[in-house]
Amino acid sequence: MCIGIPVQVQSCDALQAWCSGRGERHRIDLQLVGEQDVGTWLLAFQGSAVRVLTPEEAAQTNAALDALAAALTGETDFDAYFPDLVDRKPHPPTIRSELCHDRRQR
Q1: Average pLDDT, the chain
Q2: By 3-state DSSP, what share of the chain in percent is helix, strand and coil, each rounded to 5?
Q3: Domain assignment of residue 65, yes or no
């Protein structure tokens, strides 16, 4: 499986940046996002930055990747990885529930 990872720019020139993320250092191509300031978070996929992330998006993506790693080791309690979703109610209703409601109306 190939997935993008959040990386933070440590140094940068016009087309390349040295970034750190997930405990590793990466040389990242910046052609899709342009030159970036040190400290900027990027979503990197196969050695290229595909978009700029907010610090919050980077943290949420890292939490999701941590949850994936935990699931692979057999962990089943994921609330700590997604605290913003723990008390969230589904809103708006899912399409599936709307379809079921429409069928009952007929």
Answers
A1: 87
A2: 30, 30, 40
A3: yes
CATH code of 65's domain? 2.30.30.140
Q: CB–CB of 32/49 below 8 Å? A: yes
Q: What is the pTM of this model?
A: 0.76
The angle subtended at Cα 13 by Cα 11 and Cα 60, nearest 5°, is 50
Q: Encoding tokens for residue 60?
A: 């949420």
Which range (9-23, 31-45, 89-103) has the least confidence?
89-103
Domain with 24 in it? 5-81
Residue 86 lies in a domain: no
Q: How many CB atoms lie within 10 A of CB 100?
A: 11
Domain count, the chain: 1
Residues whose CB is less than 8 angstroms from the CB of residue 26 and which lie 6 or more positions away in sequence, other chains included: 7, 18, 19, 20, 44, 47
